[in-house]
Amino acid sequence: MRLISSGRHHARFEFGDLQVVSLRDGYIDMPPTRLRDEDGCALDELPTAVPLVGDNLRLSVNAFFVTDGTRSVLIDTGASNAWHDPTMGLIYDALDEAGIDRARVTDVAITHKHEDHVSGLIAPDGPEAFTELERVWIGAGDASVFTGRLEPIRDRVVPVPEKVAINDWTTAVPTPGHTPGHTVFEVRSGTGCLLAWGDTVHVPTLQFDRPNVAWEFDGDQSQARAARAVLLEQLTRPHHFVAGAHLDSPGIARVTASGDGYALEYLAPPIG
Question: pTM of this prediction?
Fold first, then answer.
C-alpha cells in the first residue's frame, strides 16, 4: 500500500487494484479517566508517551472510502453536526477535497452505532447526505440505532449477524465488545488485506503497547479486549494493514509485534 496524494482532510492510497481514501471528520477531546485497567478502574498513571492537549486525550475521527474504480464502499460517516460540533463533521469537505461525488456512494458500512461513526448519514441541514444510497451495512446488534434523526435510512439497513461478504473484496466481520454490533471490515486486494475498524483502539499511543487497556464506553470490556487481541495478532501477518477510526489521521498503518504488545507504523504523516 502506498500514499499517492493527500490534502488537508484526506489521503489517497493505492492498494493493489483498489484505492483507499482516508477522510478526516475531525477530532474529539476526552479525559484520560476514560481509560480502564483490567479491573475496570481508571489508570493510576498515564505513560509519558501519551500526548495530552490541555488535560485531554485528542482522538482523531476518520472514515474510509474504498473503490475498485466501478464499485465503492464508504466505511463510517463521521458525526455531521450531531456531536462535538464544530470540531467534527468535516467528512463532506474531505469528500469534496478528494474529488469524490457523494452521489457515487451507494454502500455505507458502519463499524458501530455511536454518533461519531453513523451520524454523517444525515447532513447538518437535515437531508440525507448520500442521495443514491442503497444499502447501509451494520452489525445486527447495533441496527436499532436507526430511529429519530436516522429514521429515513432505516429501509436500507442490512443487519450483519455473522461474517458476510458485502462485495467481491470487502467482508463484514462481527467483533462485538465495544458495542454488541461492533464490526470490522476486511478489505482484500491483489496485494494484501486491510482491516478497517471503529473503536477497537481509541488511544494508539497507549493501546498497541498495552492492549489490555480498555475504554470506559466499551460495553463489555473483557469482550472488547479479546476482540482487540485477535485483530492485533492478525495484523502482524505479512501484507496486512489497519485503517482505524481513531488512529491519528489519516489512520492507515502497519502493525508489528513488540515485546508484550505491538508497534504501529503509519504509512503517511499525520494531517490536520
Answer: 0.97
